[in-house]
Design brief:
Blueprint: H1 2-44, H2 59-87, H3 91-117, H4 128-142, H5 148-178, H6 182-219
Helix pairs in contact: 2-3, 2-4, 2-5, 3-6, 4-5, 5-6
Amino acid sequence: MKTTTKSTTASKSNSASENKSKTTASTKTAGSKASETKKAASKSGSGAVKAKSSAAEGLRELFVDSLKDIYWAEKALTKALPKMAKNATSENLITTINDHLAVTQEQVARLEEVFSLVGEKATAKKCDAMEGLIKEGESIMEETEVGPVRDAGIIAASQKIEHYEIATYGTLAAFAQTLGEDDAVLLLEKTLAEEKEADSLLTEAAYNTINFDANEEDQE
């Protein structure tokens, strides 16, 4: 009987020790989480950007907000591209820009379809990035003489725009895929393919003649 009593006492002691260890570990975990929360709160007061009252709180909101951005961007491009075409001198470049203008107009309509598919009204929200890229393009035209040098500048500005659009549509397609908006994914990927093709055509125009002609202008 004494042996049994000792065994029971030892068992209770071990159990109490285990419970104490679990409690200590749990306390440490809670303390660690609290510490992380405090650190995050501390960061928010030192350098972190404060969110607007209208800030997106979920992926769908971010997706729709990004759609509004690129919708504004594409509509702005339908006004900017004709100006670029008028300032270009290379027939190949003029044709490339005008062809992409027609494609861009189709992309605007396609975005309106995407809005409809996800149950949102097609609304444009000013895109600061595209506004900056278009202004840079205008600045390049002002700072270059008409001819091959300006054509090279127009290509450079246009490709920056295409790269921005490629990044945007790639991201939008990924968002739509995650959200289960499969029909929207197909439309966004179609536009993404068009932007990649436009970028390739601009590269071809640059390397076929324009960059070399612009270089000859320097040597004259």
